[in-house]
Design goal:
Low-confidence stretches: none
Order of helices and strands: EHHHHHEHEEHEHEHE
Helix content: 25-40%
Mean pLDDT: 95
Distance between the termini: 16 Å
Strand content: 15-25%
Radius of gyration: 16 Å
Oligomer: single chain
Shape: globular
Largest sheet: 7 strands, mixed
Number of strands: 7
Strand order of the largest sheet: 4-3-2-1-5-6-7
Structural class: alpha/beta
Length: 206
């Protein structure tokens, strides 16, 4: 058994889901600025996430779903996942973003499971609150060790792929650590660095 865990935003998907969601509210620039600082490791992830989601209050759930179902996937995402599964990997996605996006992408890209967050809504309108699996800086590291134990996979047979500061915690539990078009803070933790927006490049390195 082998395990590969991908980040979603700016890894399997070309961009940040929350930035796309802020666009119809005219808040894309403000939210993107907070996102960038969080991915650089300059802000606490939980605080930055809850702050950004609070700015989405009032957005219609139907708009969220429409945006999340039309996100641009990274070149080579589907092909890379298919090849990894052929090679015997279980492929899982961890995202500090939202299930509206990751669960929809699961059937398109072909990964096995997703762990992400849920935007709270009341009567079809976002309340500005959020909860879920990936709320903290340590969440990805915490979840990967649970999955490794469940699947009986050791770190030698674990690969992780990400781009930002909140991926560091899962990098600590894998021997193959891919920084994909990543921030410098994550590149320092990686042993494979890919700076081309083409996920199939990973297949040449493993």
């Amino acid at each position: 058994m082998k395990l590969c865990v991908f980040d979603f935003d700016s890894t399997l998907m070309d961009g940040e889901t929350i930035d796309f969601l802020a666009r119809p509210l005219g808040l894309e620039e403000k939210v993107a600025g907070i996102t960038e600082r969080a991915m650089q490791g300059e802000l606490d992830f939980f605080e930055s996430l809850t702050t950004r989601v609070s700015l989405l209050k009032g957005l219609e759930q139907s708009t969220v779903d429409q945006i999340c179902q039309n996100l641009p996937y990274m070149p080579g995402a589907k092909e890379t996942i298919a090849m990894l599964k052929e090679r015997g990997y279980t492929v899982i996605v961890f995202s500090g973003g939202f299930r509206n996006a990751t669960s929809y992408a699961k059937d398109i890209l072909g990964f096995d499971a997703d762990f992400s967050n849920i935007l709270h809504q009341r009567e079809g309108i976002l309340t500005g609150l959020v909860g879920g699996d990936m709320m903290f800086d340590f969440s990805k590291g915490d979840m990967i060790t649970r999955i490794q134990n469940l699947l009986h996979v050791d770190r030698a047979n674990t690969m992780v792929v990400g781009d930002g500061a909140n991926d560091r915690s899962m990098f600590a539990h894998a021997d193959t650590r891919v920084a994909f078009c990543a921030k410098d803070i994550l590149k320092h933790e990686a042993n494979i660095i890919i700076d081309i927006k083409d996920l199939t490049q990973i297949l040449k390195e493993i």
